[in-house]
Amino acid sequence: MGEAPRSLFDKLWDAHAVVAREDGATLLWVDRHFIHEGSFHAFDQLKKKGAGVARADLTFGIADHYVPTRGRSAPIPDESIRHMVDQLTENSAANGIELFGLQDPRQGIVHVVGPEQGLTLPGLLIVCGDSHTSTHGAFGAYAFGIGASEVAHVLMTQTLWQKKPKPMRVKVEGRTAPGVGAKDIALSIIARIGADGAQGHAVEYAGAAVRALSMEGRLTLCNLSIEAGARCGMVAPDETTVTYLRGRPFAPKGEDFERAAADWLSLASDAEAEFDREVALDGAEIAPVVTWGVSPEDALPIDGVVPDPEHAPDPGKAAQIRDALAYMGLRPGQLLTEVRVDRVFIGSCTNSRIEDLRAAAAVLAGRTARVPGFVSPGSSLVKRQAEEEGLDRIFREAGLEWVESGCSMCVGINGDVVPPGERCASTTNRNFKGRQGPGARTHLMSPAMVAAAAVTGHLADVRPLIGTRA
Amino acid sequence: MEPFRHLAALACPIARANIDTDQILPARFIRTPRSQSHAPMLFHDMRFDADGKPRRDFPLNRPQWAEAQIIVARRNFGAGSSRESAVYALADYGIRCVIAPSLGDIFASNAVNNGLLPARVAEAKAEELIAALEHGAAEVSIDLEAQTIRAGNHVMAFAIDPVWRMKLLNGWDDLDLTASFRAEIDTFAKRDAERRPWAAPAR
Ligand code: SF4
Questions:
Q1: Cα–Cα–Cα angle for A214, A291, B73, rounded to 5 degrees
Q2: CB-closest option in A84, A163, A231 to B161
Q3: Cystine design at A418: which of A31, A204, A386, A440 (Cβ 3.0–4.6 Å)?
Q4: Of residues A145, A323, A439, nearest to B16 (C-beta)
């Protein structure tokens, strides 16, 4: 008898286990630790203990959550926001941590910059004090978000105590139609299993529709794992992964790269590996999706109607729908395509990579947005590339603003907020109450669908707008 | 950390699903340093209206629940952002336990790191508890060793990961535990660097 078959996740877990306690808690080695402005709590804990950073060489700082998206050459006017960025600069410098700061040409959103710089690699264990760290799993890495106390623990020891999540597989077979992308796949999964459907699980995405995704698409898919409650999401590395990584600044070079690539390509679930749970979707059945409520699970195909609490399966669910509709200002039975929007936002770690910008630009080219909005590229390098491709011109000519890179209107803490009561078609990941600003109403969708909302002024199916141009 | 064994305290029902960490502590407050109490910001936009006045319909604002140390909610409490300050807000307010059918993983882990018990109960049991509390039951007693919750004549079991249970019961601090494995960590790091030379960032 050989060894018991293992899933990709089992292999990643085993490769990082330093010691396992009897009760199941395991001390894991951390390969990469990303920090952003929110790390100040952890550094305060270190200062209190008089402790230092164990492995500054494996720690990277990125300014993204509080950075301004306009007027970057001037000092940040709001003092408390400026302080957040300054604290990161000071804490990084004091501990010898390489920082992609506000003025760095490589600056951007942590989950865009990590992959772009080749800091995110297959087989790594990656943590960051940010729930969307699941994004990096797109490379076949074990990547997950942690809280401030855990950030402090990693800074001090380069390790973390974890209990093992259960492996779960989500298979999307078949082919998705034109106009349907990773965001639609991810929102369809969340709508199916619920915002807590994958809690306690490590999700592996598999199937033909997943394999067909570019790295950008896989990053979007894994990014949204946390919105299904998963601890992490991952896609087994393949040629798409290796091709993306070749020549990235921090990726191995020359022969080292070839050796690494061979190791990476061996990272896959064994044929007989057992999963605690399996979910299957047919890619061909997935339509462009929008959210109507205040949880990412409140997602429906664009040709649907706003749900009616009277038809809910139980009183709890009915109350949930009623509460969401009151906040969102929607009527039961209303056609989703009748919902007018006040503004649009294209950005965030979910959908701000070059492919996302291209998809939005393809719809906006030669058209005019009926509502205001702006585009914040995922990184300063994505911004430069988009400008080289002339995408910035398409956005500007359509009437949208083209701004600098950061978390921006995804969470609004840099000052980019949706005004109270306004409705925003957004490429972000959370439609929580107040997420884009107090009283803001958020509808999540793909970049192409946001572009469709921009040019029509309401939630709209992008499919008639692509490939049918006069 | 203080060990957590028993708790007998007032419990406040918040009969809502998906109370995410943005609701527990809105993002605009996460820049607050730990030295400052996070209690005034707890559930801020659910608790206060746009003028900053307490909303009368929010359970924690009712006199009978103002002193609660336990919250009972519907599914998916604490989903969303990893902000530990959501737990700081609960802890600073005096909350020591959240009971719900499901809880966000990162939130629950942050809770345990701050001595706050995340207790999972079956959906029907959560509804039973919420109904009992809304109809006048007040004190709830929790036994972590036995994993039981008692409210009046309602008794129910709750689930918690065994690792988290041990940690709370003993008041363990991760850093102290890790310190005892120094040698193992060093050995692992050395061997790993040979096994996976490509894992280090190429500079
Ligand atoms: S873009 Fe939004 S979700 Fe992503 S890291 Fe920034 S704040 Fe978090």
A1: 115
A2: A163
A3: A440
A4: A323
Residue A335 is classified by DSSP as B
What dotted CATH number matches A8-163? 3.30.499.10
User: Domain map of chain A by residue range?
Assistant: 8-163, 166-237+269-285, 289-465
Instruction: Report chain B residues whose CB lies below 8 A from the CB of A196.
Output: 75-76, 79, 102, 104
3-state secondary structure of B155: strand
Per the structure block, which two tokens stand in for B118?
């995340």
- Per-residue pLDDT of chain B (203 residues), as tens digits, is 889 999 999 999 999 999 999 999 999 999 999 999 999 999 999 999 999 999 999 999 999 999 999 999 999 999 999 999 999 999 999 999 999 999 999 999 999 999 999 999 999 999 999 999 999 878 999 999 999 999 998 999 999 999 999 999 999 999 999 999 999 999 999 999 999 999 999 98
Measure A183 CA to ligand 1 centroid, in angstroms: 15
Query: Across the interface, do B202 and A118 touch by the CB < 8 Å criterion?
Result: yes
Class of domain A166-237+269-285: alpha beta
Question: Does the CB of A129 have a partner CB in chain B at under 8 Å?
Answer: yes
For B10, phi and psi rounded to 5 degrees? Answer: -70, 140
Nearest CB among B31, B106, B163 relative to A25 is that of: B163
DSSP H helical ranges for B123-181: 123-134, 162-170, 174-179
Domains A166-237+269-285 and A289-465 alike in fold: no
Q: Which of A55, A58, A67, A161 to mutate to test the interface with B (most CBs of B within 10 A)?
A: A161
* Domain residue spans of chain B: 6-172
Report CB contact under 8 Å: A84, B31: yes
d(CA B178, CA B165): 18
Ligand 1 neighbourhood includes A411 CB (under 6 angstroms): yes
Which residues in chain B are closer than 8 Å to A121, comparing Cβ atoms?
198-199
**Nearest Cα residue to A133 out of A236, A62, A71, A194:** A62
At the top level of CATH, which class does the domain A289-465 belong to?
alpha beta
pTM for this model (two decimals): 0.97
The residue among A252, A213, A237, A235 whose CA lies nearest residue A134 is: A235
Amino acid at B20: D
pLDDT digit string (tens) for A105-143? 999 999 999 999 999 999 999 999 999 999 999 999 999
Contact: B33, A44; criterion CB under 8 Å:
yes
Contacts of A269 (CB under 8 A, 6+ apart): A6, A7, A8, A9, A169, A204, A206, A236
How close does chain B come to A248, measured CA to CA in Å? Answer: 10
- Cα B115 to Cα B94: distance, rounded to the nearest angstrom: 11
- CATH code 3.20.19.10 for B6-172: yes
- Residues from chain A that touch B181, judged by Cβ atoms under 8 A, are 18-19, 27
- HSE at residue A405, side-chain half, CA atoms within 13 A, is 33
Model confidence over A407-426: pLDDT tens digits? Answer: 999 999 999 999 999 999 99
Question: From the list A146, A159, A259, which residue is nearest B178 (CB)?
Answer: A159
Say if the Cβ atoms of B178 and A251 lie within 8 Å: no
The answer to ipTM > 0.90 is yes
